[in-house]
Design a protein that fits this description.
Layout: H1 2-11, E1 16-17, H2 18-25, H3 29-41, E2 47-49, E3 52-54, H4 58-70, E4 79-86, H5 89-98, E5 105-112, E6 130-136, H6 145-162, E7 167-170, E8 174-177, E9 180-192, E10 195-205, H7 216-221, H8 225-229, H9 235-254, H10 258-268, E11 275-279, E12 285-293, E13 299-302, E14 308-311, E15 315-318
Parallel strand pairs: 4-5
Antiparallel strand pairs: 1-3, 2-3, 5-6, 6-10, 7-8, 8-9, 9-10, 11-12, 11-15, 12-13, 13-14
Helix pairs in contact: 2-3, 4-9, 6-9, 6-10
The structure holds biotin (BTN).
Biotin (BTN) binds near residues 88, 125, 131 and 184.
Protein backbone atom coordinates (compact mmCIF):
# COMPACT_ATOMS: atom_id res chain seq x y z
CA UNK A 1 0.00 0.00 0.00
CA UNK A 2 2.78 2.44 0.91
CA UNK A 3 4.37 2.21 -2.53
CA UNK A 4 0.95 2.75 -4.09
CA UNK A 5 0.53 5.92 -2.03
CA UNK A 6 4.01 7.09 -3.03
CA UNK A 7 3.22 6.21 -6.61
CA UNK A 8 -0.06 8.16 -6.63
CA UNK A 9 1.50 11.19 -4.96
CA UNK A 10 4.57 11.29 -7.14
CA UNK A 11 2.70 10.78 -10.38
CA UNK A 12 0.08 13.44 -9.81
CA UNK A 13 0.92 17.00 -10.80
CA UNK A 14 -1.64 18.41 -8.40
CA UNK A 15 -1.58 18.13 -4.65
CA UNK A 16 -4.09 15.58 -3.42
CA UNK A 17 -6.20 15.39 -0.30
CA UNK A 18 -6.40 12.22 1.76
CA UNK A 19 -9.89 11.60 0.38
CA UNK A 20 -8.62 11.87 -3.18
CA UNK A 21 -5.73 9.45 -2.54
CA UNK A 22 -8.17 7.09 -0.80
CA UNK A 23 -10.62 7.18 -3.66
CA UNK A 24 -7.91 6.63 -6.32
CA UNK A 25 -6.69 3.58 -4.40
CA UNK A 26 -10.16 2.54 -3.38
CA UNK A 27 -9.38 2.22 0.34
CA UNK A 28 -10.43 3.87 3.56
CA UNK A 29 -9.06 7.38 4.29
CA UNK A 30 -7.88 6.31 7.76
CA UNK A 31 -5.65 3.65 6.29
CA UNK A 32 -4.02 6.21 3.99
CA UNK A 33 -3.46 8.51 6.96
CA UNK A 34 -1.79 5.72 8.95
CA UNK A 35 0.53 4.86 6.06
CA UNK A 36 1.45 8.51 5.52
CA UNK A 37 2.37 8.82 9.20
CA UNK A 38 4.53 5.72 8.93
CA UNK A 39 6.18 7.01 5.72
CA UNK A 40 6.94 10.27 7.50
CA UNK A 41 8.69 8.34 10.26
CA UNK A 42 10.78 6.64 7.55
CA UNK A 43 12.07 10.03 6.48
CA UNK A 44 9.80 10.91 3.55
CA UNK A 45 8.88 14.55 3.50
CA UNK A 46 5.40 15.54 2.42
CA UNK A 47 4.40 19.00 1.43
CA UNK A 48 1.12 19.54 3.23
CA UNK A 49 -1.08 22.52 2.54
CA UNK A 50 -4.80 22.68 3.27
CA UNK A 51 -4.61 19.00 4.18
CA UNK A 52 -3.33 18.17 0.70
CA UNK A 53 -0.30 15.94 0.19
CA UNK A 54 2.42 16.14 -2.37
CA UNK A 55 5.97 14.81 -2.57
CA UNK A 56 7.18 16.18 -5.84
CA UNK A 57 7.09 19.72 -7.14
CA UNK A 58 5.83 20.29 -10.66
CA UNK A 59 9.17 21.66 -11.85
CA UNK A 60 10.79 18.31 -10.97
CA UNK A 61 7.87 16.51 -12.56
CA UNK A 62 8.55 18.35 -15.83
CA UNK A 63 12.23 17.38 -15.72
CA UNK A 64 11.31 13.77 -15.06
CA UNK A 65 8.87 13.81 -17.98
CA UNK A 66 11.64 15.13 -20.24
CA UNK A 67 14.01 12.49 -18.89
CA UNK A 68 11.47 9.76 -19.66
CA UNK A 69 11.20 11.09 -23.21
CA UNK A 70 14.99 11.12 -23.70
CA UNK A 71 15.43 7.50 -22.61
CA UNK A 72 12.59 6.09 -24.68
CA UNK A 73 13.71 3.01 -26.56
CA UNK A 74 15.88 1.52 -23.81
CA UNK A 75 15.29 -2.16 -23.09
CA UNK A 76 13.94 -1.68 -19.59
CA UNK A 77 10.96 0.51 -18.79
CA UNK A 78 12.20 2.99 -16.15
CA UNK A 79 9.79 4.68 -13.75
CA UNK A 80 10.84 7.46 -11.42
CA UNK A 81 9.84 8.22 -7.84
CA UNK A 82 11.44 11.51 -6.88
CA UNK A 83 11.58 12.75 -3.29
CA UNK A 84 12.91 15.85 -1.62
CA UNK A 85 14.19 14.10 1.48
CA UNK A 86 14.16 10.45 2.53
CA UNK A 87 15.91 8.21 5.04
CA UNK A 88 17.55 5.99 2.43
CA UNK A 89 16.53 5.54 -1.22
CA UNK A 90 17.62 1.87 -0.93
CA UNK A 91 15.13 1.35 1.91
CA UNK A 92 12.30 2.97 -0.05
CA UNK A 93 13.16 0.91 -3.15
CA UNK A 94 13.22 -2.23 -1.00
CA UNK A 95 9.85 -1.38 0.49
CA UNK A 96 8.47 -0.78 -2.98
CA UNK A 97 9.96 -4.06 -4.25
CA UNK A 98 8.39 -5.92 -1.31
CA UNK A 99 5.08 -4.46 -2.43
CA UNK A 100 5.54 -5.66 -5.99
CA UNK A 101 7.20 -2.67 -7.69
CA UNK A 102 8.23 -3.43 -11.25
CA UNK A 103 11.86 -3.74 -12.22
CA UNK A 104 13.13 -0.42 -13.50
CA UNK A 105 11.45 1.50 -10.67
CA UNK A 106 13.93 4.20 -9.65
CA UNK A 107 13.85 6.08 -6.37
CA UNK A 108 15.71 9.41 -6.38
CA UNK A 109 16.10 11.86 -3.51
CA UNK A 110 17.62 15.33 -3.23
CA UNK A 111 18.85 14.46 0.24
CA UNK A 112 19.09 11.37 2.47
CA UNK A 113 19.15 11.61 6.22
CA UNK A 114 19.93 7.94 6.87
CA UNK A 115 21.98 7.13 3.76
CA UNK A 116 23.64 3.71 3.99
CA UNK A 117 27.14 2.73 2.89
CA UNK A 118 28.64 -0.76 2.77
CA UNK A 119 29.47 -2.51 6.01
CA UNK A 120 26.65 -0.80 7.91
CA UNK A 121 28.38 2.57 7.67
CA UNK A 122 26.61 5.89 7.20
CA UNK A 123 26.64 7.54 3.74
CA UNK A 124 26.66 11.31 3.89
CA UNK A 125 24.07 12.50 1.39
CA UNK A 126 23.56 16.27 1.46
CA UNK A 127 21.73 18.35 -1.13
CA UNK A 128 23.41 18.57 -4.52
CA UNK A 129 24.33 14.89 -4.80
CA UNK A 130 22.66 12.14 -6.76
CA UNK A 131 21.15 9.54 -4.44
CA UNK A 132 19.38 6.90 -6.43
CA UNK A 133 18.22 3.27 -6.15
CA UNK A 134 16.99 0.95 -8.89
CA UNK A 135 14.71 -2.07 -8.41
CA UNK A 136 15.80 -5.04 -10.57
CA UNK A 137 14.27 -8.48 -10.94
CA UNK A 138 16.68 -10.52 -13.07
CA UNK A 139 16.05 -14.23 -13.44
CA UNK A 140 19.41 -15.34 -12.11
CA UNK A 141 21.02 -17.14 -9.21
CA UNK A 142 21.67 -15.18 -5.99
CA UNK A 143 25.41 -15.83 -6.41
CA UNK A 144 25.34 -13.60 -9.50
CA UNK A 145 24.08 -10.53 -7.61
CA UNK A 146 27.62 -9.18 -6.86
CA UNK A 147 28.21 -8.98 -10.61
CA UNK A 148 25.52 -6.30 -10.74
CA UNK A 149 27.65 -4.15 -8.42
CA UNK A 150 30.54 -4.42 -10.85
CA UNK A 151 28.23 -3.85 -13.84
CA UNK A 152 26.83 -0.69 -12.25
CA UNK A 153 30.37 0.52 -11.56
CA UNK A 154 31.14 0.06 -15.26
CA UNK A 155 28.07 2.14 -16.22
CA UNK A 156 28.93 4.95 -13.77
CA UNK A 157 32.63 5.08 -14.78
CA UNK A 158 31.76 5.10 -18.49
CA UNK A 159 29.26 7.92 -17.94
CA UNK A 160 31.82 10.01 -16.06
CA UNK A 161 34.40 9.34 -18.78
CA UNK A 162 31.91 10.46 -21.44
CA UNK A 163 31.75 13.79 -19.57
CA UNK A 164 35.54 14.11 -19.72
CA UNK A 165 36.27 12.91 -16.16
CA UNK A 166 39.07 10.37 -15.81
CA UNK A 167 37.17 7.91 -13.60
CA UNK A 168 38.40 4.46 -12.59
CA UNK A 169 36.98 1.66 -10.44
CA UNK A 170 38.51 0.43 -7.21
CA UNK A 171 37.37 -3.10 -6.36
CA UNK A 172 34.61 -3.79 -5.81
CA UNK A 173 32.48 -0.70 -6.09
CA UNK A 174 34.24 2.62 -5.57
CA UNK A 175 34.45 5.05 -8.43
CA UNK A 176 37.57 7.15 -8.02
CA UNK A 177 39.18 10.16 -9.64
CA UNK A 178 42.84 9.73 -8.77
CA UNK A 179 42.67 8.70 -5.12
CA UNK A 180 39.45 10.60 -4.37
CA UNK A 181 36.10 8.83 -4.24
CA UNK A 182 33.27 10.29 -6.29
CA UNK A 183 30.70 7.49 -6.17
CA UNK A 184 29.81 4.40 -4.16
CA UNK A 185 27.45 1.56 -4.99
CA UNK A 186 25.44 -0.49 -2.51
CA UNK A 187 23.73 -3.59 -3.87
CA UNK A 188 21.19 -5.36 -1.68
CA UNK A 189 19.65 -8.62 -2.84
CA UNK A 190 16.63 -10.48 -1.56
CA UNK A 191 16.28 -14.20 -2.16
CA UNK A 192 13.51 -16.69 -1.52
CA UNK A 193 14.38 -20.41 -1.63
CA UNK A 194 17.66 -19.73 -3.44
CA UNK A 195 15.90 -17.72 -6.14
CA UNK A 196 16.72 -14.06 -6.60
CA UNK A 197 13.55 -12.15 -5.82
CA UNK A 198 14.89 -8.63 -6.38
CA UNK A 199 18.10 -6.63 -6.31
CA UNK A 200 18.30 -3.02 -5.23
CA UNK A 201 21.22 -1.19 -6.76
CA UNK A 202 21.93 2.02 -4.84
CA UNK A 203 24.20 4.68 -6.30
CA UNK A 204 25.59 7.61 -4.38
CA UNK A 205 27.31 10.16 -6.61
CA UNK A 206 28.84 13.35 -5.26
CA UNK A 207 27.72 15.22 -8.34
CA UNK A 208 27.15 18.83 -7.35
CA UNK A 209 27.60 18.72 -3.58
CA UNK A 210 29.41 21.69 -2.05
CA UNK A 211 32.40 19.93 -0.45
CA UNK A 212 31.93 21.98 2.73
CA UNK A 213 28.64 20.19 3.36
CA UNK A 214 30.58 17.00 4.14
CA UNK A 215 32.12 16.29 7.53
CA UNK A 216 35.88 16.85 7.79
CA UNK A 217 36.60 13.15 7.60
CA UNK A 218 34.70 12.70 4.32
CA UNK A 219 35.90 16.01 2.84
CA UNK A 220 39.50 14.73 2.70
CA UNK A 221 38.59 11.59 0.80
CA UNK A 222 36.09 12.73 -1.82
CA UNK A 223 35.71 14.82 -4.92
CA UNK A 224 32.67 15.95 -6.88
CA UNK A 225 31.75 16.20 -10.54
CA UNK A 226 31.34 19.94 -10.16
CA UNK A 227 34.86 20.28 -8.77
CA UNK A 228 36.39 18.11 -11.49
CA UNK A 229 34.63 19.93 -14.34
CA UNK A 230 34.46 23.41 -12.84
CA UNK A 231 30.78 23.45 -13.71
CA UNK A 232 27.57 21.70 -12.80
CA UNK A 233 26.11 18.84 -14.80
CA UNK A 234 22.49 18.52 -13.72
CA UNK A 235 21.60 15.31 -11.92
CA UNK A 236 18.83 14.69 -14.44
CA UNK A 237 21.28 14.96 -17.36
CA UNK A 238 23.62 12.56 -15.56
CA UNK A 239 20.78 10.08 -15.01
CA UNK A 240 19.92 10.21 -18.71
CA UNK A 241 23.52 9.45 -19.76
CA UNK A 242 23.96 6.89 -17.00
CA UNK A 243 20.77 4.96 -17.80
CA UNK A 244 21.88 4.49 -21.41
CA UNK A 245 25.08 2.83 -20.16
CA UNK A 246 23.28 1.01 -17.37
CA UNK A 247 20.65 -0.41 -19.72
CA UNK A 248 23.44 -1.80 -21.90
CA UNK A 249 25.27 -3.58 -19.05
CA UNK A 250 22.04 -4.80 -17.46
CA UNK A 251 20.95 -6.29 -20.78
CA UNK A 252 24.31 -8.09 -20.94
CA UNK A 253 23.76 -9.32 -17.38
CA UNK A 254 20.32 -10.70 -18.24
CA UNK A 255 21.71 -12.26 -21.44
CA UNK A 256 24.35 -14.02 -19.28
CA UNK A 257 27.17 -12.14 -21.04
CA UNK A 258 29.01 -11.84 -17.73
CA UNK A 259 32.45 -12.24 -19.34
CA UNK A 260 31.85 -9.10 -21.42
CA UNK A 261 30.91 -7.11 -18.30
CA UNK A 262 33.96 -8.36 -16.41
CA UNK A 263 36.25 -7.48 -19.30
CA UNK A 264 34.87 -3.94 -19.34
CA UNK A 265 35.35 -3.78 -15.57
CA UNK A 266 38.98 -4.95 -15.92
CA UNK A 267 39.69 -2.16 -18.42
CA UNK A 268 38.28 0.46 -16.03
CA UNK A 269 39.90 -1.01 -12.91
CA UNK A 270 42.49 0.95 -10.96
CA UNK A 271 43.04 -2.01 -8.60
CA UNK A 272 44.51 -4.70 -10.83
CA UNK A 273 48.30 -4.55 -10.87
CA UNK A 274 48.51 -2.72 -7.53
CA UNK A 275 49.66 -3.80 -4.08
CA UNK A 276 46.60 -3.93 -1.87
CA UNK A 277 45.57 -4.39 1.71
CA UNK A 278 42.18 -6.02 2.30
CA UNK A 279 40.43 -5.34 5.57
CA UNK A 280 37.59 -7.61 6.56
CA UNK A 281 35.25 -7.63 9.54
CA UNK A 282 36.61 -9.20 12.75
CA UNK A 283 40.00 -7.64 12.07
CA UNK A 284 41.14 -10.00 9.30
CA UNK A 285 43.69 -8.32 7.03
CA UNK A 286 45.32 -9.66 3.85
CA UNK A 287 48.17 -8.21 1.80
CA UNK A 288 49.19 -8.97 -1.74
CA UNK A 289 49.31 -7.97 -5.39
CA UNK A 290 45.89 -7.64 -6.97
CA UNK A 291 46.22 -9.80 -10.07
CA UNK A 292 42.65 -9.91 -11.33
CA UNK A 293 39.02 -10.77 -10.71
CA UNK A 294 37.44 -14.15 -11.33
CA UNK A 295 34.14 -14.88 -13.05
CA UNK A 296 32.22 -14.36 -9.81
CA UNK A 297 33.71 -10.89 -9.40
CA UNK A 298 36.02 -11.96 -6.53
CA UNK A 299 39.36 -10.18 -6.28
CA UNK A 300 42.39 -12.45 -6.67
CA UNK A 301 45.45 -11.40 -4.74
CA UNK A 302 48.89 -13.00 -4.83
CA UNK A 303 50.25 -13.11 -1.29
CA UNK A 304 53.95 -12.80 -0.48
CA UNK A 305 54.40 -16.59 -0.34
CA UNK A 306 52.85 -16.96 -3.81
CA UNK A 307 49.51 -18.14 -2.48
CA UNK A 308 46.55 -16.96 -4.58
CA UNK A 309 43.70 -15.82 -2.38
CA UNK A 310 40.16 -15.13 -3.53
CA UNK A 311 38.55 -12.19 -1.77
CA UNK A 312 34.75 -12.16 -1.69
CA UNK A 313 34.31 -8.91 0.21
CA UNK A 314 36.18 -6.36 2.24
CA UNK A 315 37.63 -2.90 2.13
CA UNK A 316 40.42 -2.59 -0.41
CA UNK A 317 43.25 -0.15 0.24
CA UNK A 318 45.67 0.53 -2.59
CA UNK A 319 49.25 0.63 -1.32
CA UNK A 320 51.19 1.97 -4.31
C1 LIG B 1 29.60 2.59 -0.46
O1 LIG B 1 30.50 3.09 -1.13
O2 LIG B 1 29.82 2.12 0.67
C2 LIG B 1 28.21 2.53 -1.04
C3 LIG B 1 27.45 3.81 -0.86
C4 LIG B 1 26.09 3.79 -1.51
C5 LIG B 1 25.28 5.04 -1.25
C6 LIG B 1 24.00 5.06 -1.99
S1 LIG B 1 23.21 6.63 -1.99
C7 LIG B 1 21.77 5.95 -2.68
C8 LIG B 1 21.55 4.61 -2.02
N1 LIG B 1 20.80 4.75 -0.78
C9 LIG B 1 21.55 4.46 0.29
O3 LIG B 1 21.14 4.52 1.47
N2 LIG B 1 22.76 4.08 -0.08
C10 LIG B 1 22.92 4.09 -1.52
Amino acid sequence: MKDKILGVLSENKEELSLEEVASILNVNKNRIEEHIESLKSEGIEFKISDEKYKILNSEKKKLIDELKESIKGLNLDYNFFYFKEVGSTNNIAKMMAENGAKEGSIVIADKQIKGKARGGKKWESPDGGLWLSIVLRPKSFPSKAPIMTLATGVAVAKTLQSLGIDAGIKWPNDILIGDKKICGILTEANTTFNVLDYIIVGIGLDSNVEIDLFTNDVKKRVTTMKKELNEEVSNIKFIELFLKNFDEVYTKFKDKKIIEILNEWRKLSTTIGKKVEIRQPLGRVYHGDAIGINNEGMLIIEEEDGNLRRIVSGECIIKN
